[in-house]
Amino acid sequence: MLKIATWNVNSIRKRIDQLCSFVTEDEIDIIMLQEIKCTNEQFPYEQIEQLGYKCIVHGEKARNGVAILSKYPVIEDSLSTSIVDNEEARYLECLIECNGFNLRVASVYVPNGQSIDSEAFKYKLHFFDCLYQRLHDLFGKEEITIVGGDYNVAPNKIDVHDDYANEDKIGFNIDERGKLFAILHSGYCDAFRITNPESKEFSWWDYREGSWQQNKGMRIDHILLSPEATDRLEKCYINNKMRAKENPSDHAPVVCVLEESINYSLK
DNA sequence: ATGGTGGCTGGGCCA
């Protein structure tokens, strides 16, 4: 069994103790992190390595920043840390060797987009185009590809609270949903939705307006799987206990469980 | 209610 998680921590330095208890209690093998909000130098390597994880970090000062932590050996790192032609730390990819087969793992932090009529929204759509291109290029390269992250898009009505299922709302506009659908159509699977077809669950709740208390959230954090990974998918869950803690991230971790005792080679 | 809270910082910007 292989447990793989994604979590937007909203500052790794603020959340380091919660991260350590989460990966220990949920027995996480690999985790993709977003919004670490620190430089590579500021990253708390020591505390995480003590738990047996290798750290691959692509940070920047004060904002954004992605990382991948793995209990299994990382055989290639710093792959394609820039899928968009700018300096923002929003994408990181590596290759992990796991009991004789390779996993290509990516951590992605899609721009929020601010509002539908903003320049930031155009950038969000452009980022999605670049992400699509990268994931399209990866398709079939390794059998097992896992792309976890904060996509800042809820795929369908069931993924947002009732007040929010509106074209004007950022994260639910048809153009950005279309970009996510295009990635799914290219062959990747939404691990949570395929294992929980009817569940109205969220992965993010605004800090403001009592959103958590009223359960007014959105499911915007996703684990996308290549077909050979999807075949091995046992379950996927959102650990919203992490959102209920004191000083939480505004996001909850998403976890998928893969069966690993399978010959992954198609040849 | 054009607000609200939280994290970067060290005054706003971003989410």
UniProtKB/TrEMBL annotation:
<feature type="active site">
    <location>
        <position position="109"/>
    </location>
</feature>
<feature type="binding site">
    <location>
        <position position="35"/>
    </location>
    <ligand>
        <name>Mg(2+)</name>
    </ligand>
</feature>
<dbReference type="InterPro" id="IPR020848">
    <property type="entry name" value="AP_endonuclease_F1_CS"/>
</dbReference>
<keyword id="KW-0464">Manganese</keyword>
<dbReference type="GO" id="GO:0046872">
    <property type="term" value="F:metal ion binding"/>
</dbReference>
<comment type="similarity">
    <text>Belongs to the DNA repair enzymes AP/ExoA family.</text>
</comment>
<protein>
    <submittedName>
        <fullName>Exodeoxyribonuclease III</fullName>
    </submittedName>
</protein>
<keyword id="KW-0460">Magnesium</keyword>
<dbReference type="InterPro" id="IPR037493">
    <property type="entry name" value="ExoIII-like"/>
</dbReference>
<dbReference type="GO" id="GO:0008311">
    <property type="term" value="F:double-stranded DNA 3'-5' DNA exonuclease activity"/>
</dbReference>
<keyword id="KW-0378">Hydrolase</keyword>
<feature type="active site" description="Proton acceptor">
    <location>
        <position position="251"/>
    </location>
</feature>
<dbReference type="GO" id="GO:0003677">
    <property type="term" value="F:DNA binding"/>
</dbReference>
<feature type="binding site">
    <location>
        <position position="150"/>
    </location>
    <ligand>
        <name>Mg(2+)</name>
    </ligand>
</feature>
<feature type="binding site">
    <location>
        <position position="8"/>
    </location>
    <ligand>
        <name>Mg(2+)</name>
    </ligand>
</feature>
<feature type="site" description="Transition state stabilizer">
    <location>
        <position position="152"/>
    </location>
</feature>
<dbReference type="InterPro" id="IPR004808">
    <property type="entry name" value="AP_endonuc_1"/>
</dbReference>
<feature type="active site" description="Proton donor/acceptor">
    <location>
        <position position="150"/>
    </location>
</feature>
<feature type="site" description="Important for catalytic activity">
    <location>
        <position position="221"/>
    </location>
</feature>
<dbReference type="Pfam" id="PF03372">
    <property type="entry name" value="Exo_endo_phos"/>
</dbReference>
<dbReference type="GO" id="GO:0004519">
    <property type="term" value="F:endonuclease activity"/>
</dbReference>
<feature type="site" description="Interaction with DNA substrate">
    <location>
        <position position="251"/>
    </location>
</feature>
<dbReference type="GO" id="GO:0006281">
    <property type="term" value="P:DNA repair"/>
</dbReference>
<dbReference type="InterPro" id="IPR005135">
    <property type="entry name" value="Endo/exonuclease/phosphatase"/>
</dbReference>
<feature type="binding site">
    <location>
        <position position="152"/>
    </location>
    <ligand>
        <name>Mg(2+)</name>
    </ligand>
</feature>
<feature type="binding site">
    <location>
        <position position="251"/>
    </location>
    <ligand>
        <name>Mg(2+)</name>
    </ligand>
</feature>
<keyword id="KW-0479">Metal-binding</keyword>
<dbReference type="InterPro" id="IPR036691">
    <property type="entry name" value="Endo/exonu/phosph_ase_sf"/>
</dbReference>
<feature type="binding site">
    <location>
        <position position="250"/>
    </location>
    <ligand>
        <name>Mg(2+)</name>
    </ligand>
</feature>
<feature type="domain" description="Endonuclease/exonuclease/phosphatase">
    <location>
        <begin position="5"/>
        <end position="251"/>
    </location>
</feature>
